[in-house]
Amino acid sequence: MSSLVKKTPLYTAYAGSALLETPLLNKGSAFTAEERLAFNLAGLLPPRYETIEEQVSRAYMQYKSFDTAINKHIYLRVIQDNNETLFYRLLQQHLEEMIPIIYTPTVGDACEQFSDIYRSARGLFISYQDRHQLDDVLRNATKRKVKVIVVTDGERVLGLGDQGIGGMGISIGKLSLYTACGGISPAYTLPVMLDVGTNNEKLLNDPMYMGLRQKRVNQAEYDEFVDLFIKAVKRRWPEAIIQFEDFAQPNAMPLLQRYRDQVCCFNDDIQGTAAVTVGTLLAACRSKNTRLSEQKVVFVGAGSAGCGIAEQVISQMVAEGLSETQARAQVYMVDRFGLLTDTTPGLRDFQQALTQSSATIAQWSYSSEFPSLLDVMNCAQPGILIGVSGQAGLFTEAVVRAMKKGCTTPVIFPLSNPSRQVEATPEQVINWTDGDVIIATGSPFAPVEFNGKRYAIAQCNNSYIFPGVGLGVIASKARLISDEMLREASKTLAAASPKANNGSGGLLPAFTELAALSKVIAFNVAKVAMQQGLALELDDAQLQQKIDDNFWVPQYRQYKRVSA
Ligand SMILES: O=C([O-])CC(=O)C(=O)O
Ligand SMILES: [Mg+2]
C-alpha cells in the first residue's frame, strides 16, 4: 500500500480508563505490555494481548450473530464509538457487506429510529438555543483539528422527509465513508446536526424523541442561525470542508449559493449527486457507443437534486458541441403535476430555465393540463430516464414499456434512496425491458437473473464522488470547490467504468475499488483546483505524496506518554 503508515509514536497524556474511553486512541486488548505499564492500564483489560486481526475476527463473529440490518448497524456504531481503528479495520475487510449497513439503505432506518437506538454521543448537536455560544460549542468538539464537517438540519433525510435530530445518522454515515473510502482520518471528521426543531408530528409526539420539541424556527431565524454557524466554523477551522447534507429544497440551493464563494463547501445532494450521475451517464453512453449530447433525458423529480443534475447534463451536452438552447430542448423535467413547461405556474427560480416550450408540446397529444410522464415517454421518446423523486413506484410498467418502444437499450436510473423509495426495482425494469436496459440505482440492489443472464446493478451514489473530492481538497488545500472540480470527478469516474472500458462487467467500479478510485479523483480534482488558482501549487509528484500522506489506514500506532 502506497499510503503512509505512520511508524512514529504518538504522544498522549491520556491514561487509564480515560484512554480506553477515547475511541480515537483506544486499542482495547491490543495495548502492549509496555503500554499497559506506561499508561496505567494494568488490571483494566483481560490479560491476553491481541492483534487487530484477532480483534476483527471476534467483532465479525459478533456482527454475524445479529439477524437484522438495524441491529448490525447498532453493533457497528457501538464499535465505532469504542474503538475507531478497529471499526475501520473491520469495515475495510468486509466493505461490500457492511456499506449497506452503515450507509444507505440501513442508515435510513437508523435516522428514523435515531432516538430509540441512541447509545452514546458522537459529533455536535447544535440546537437553535445554543446560537449565542457557538464558539464554546465548537470548542467542546472531541476533535481538535477538523478538516471535514458534514452538516444537516435533518429536514429532508434521503427520501424520508423531516427526521429532525435523526439527521445526525446521515452525517455520521457519510463521514464513515469519507474515512473508509477517502482515507480521511477519523481524527479530522466532525458530524454536525443543526437542531432547529422538526415539523414531523410523529417525532414531536414521541416521548423518546431527543431533539428540540418544537416546530422548525421561521426562515429569518433559520438563516441567521446557519450564518452564525458558518462564521463560527470559519473562525475555529478556517480550512475545513463543509458538506451540506439533506437540507430541504427551499434551503438547499440558497445556502449553497450564499456560501460557495466564501467557504470551502458543497451540497452533496445537488452537486455530489449531479457529479456521480453525469459520470455514470457518460459511462452508460460510452458503453452504448453514443454521446450524452445525442440523447433526450427525462427527470422525474424537479427539486434541487433533479435540477442540479439536469444543469450538469446540459453543461456536458454543451461541452460536447450543442448550443445551450439545443441542450435545454433535450432535457425534460417532470414533477407531480407533469412536465414543466413555460406555462407551469409557481416555478422556483432554479426550475425556470428547465422548462419545455409550449410550442414544442403543442404538437404532442395528451389529455391532462400538462403532459404526464407516460405522455413524455410516448411523445419525446427519450433514451435516458432518471428518478430523483423520493417516491416509490413512479416508473410504472406502462412508462418503462413505452420508453423501450421509443429507443434502443434505454438507460434507466431510479436513484431515490433508501431502497424502499426507489421509482422501480431493478428486477421490474429488467423484466419490462426484456433485459435490454442499462440500469443504475442510488441504493444497493442485489444482481438480477433474467433469461439466464446475470445483471449487476451499479450503485450511482454520491459516495463515488465526495470521498475523493474531499481528499483532493485536503491534499491541495483548495480554498473553494468549483463546478469544474466536480466535473473532473465525474470524468474520472466515467473513465473507470469496467463496462465502458471492456464491454463487460459493472457500469461502475465495485465499492471495494473506491479507495483506489478516490485517490485518482483526488489527484485530478486537485489539479483542476490548482489550474484555477484555488489551491497550493504542487508538481505531480508532490501532489501524489500529499494524497498518500493524507490517506489514513486503520492500524494501531505505538503510544508514548507525555505528562498532562
Ligand atoms: O445518502 C445517500 O445515499 C445519497 C444521498 O445523498 C441522498 O439520497 O440524500
Ligand atoms: Mg443526501
Entry keywords:
564 residues, alpha/beta, Rossmann fold, 3 domains, seven-stranded mixed sheet, five-stranded parallel sheet, 25 helices, 16 strands, globular, binds oxaloacetate ion, binds magnesium ion
Structure description:
This protein is of the alpha/beta class. The protein folds into three domains: 100-263, Rossmann fold; 271-463, NAD(P)-binding Rossmann-like Domain (Rossmann fold); 467-550, no CATH class. It has 25 helices and 16 strands. The chain has a seven-stranded mixed β-sheet, with helices on both faces. A five-stranded parallel β-sheet has the order 2-4-3-5-6, sandwiched between helices. It has a two-stranded parallel ribbon with strand order 1-16. A hairpin with a 2-residue loop joins strand 13 (448-450) and strand 14 (453-455). Helix 3 packs antiparallel against helix 4, helix 4 (69-82) packs across helix 7 (106-112) and helix 14 (268-287) crosses helix 15 (304-319). The chain is globular and about 85 Å long. The model has no long low-confidence stretch (mean pLDDT 96). It binds oxaloacetate ion and magnesium ion (MG). Residues 245-246, 268-269 line the site of magnesium ion. The site of magnesium ion has 4 residues, from helix 14.
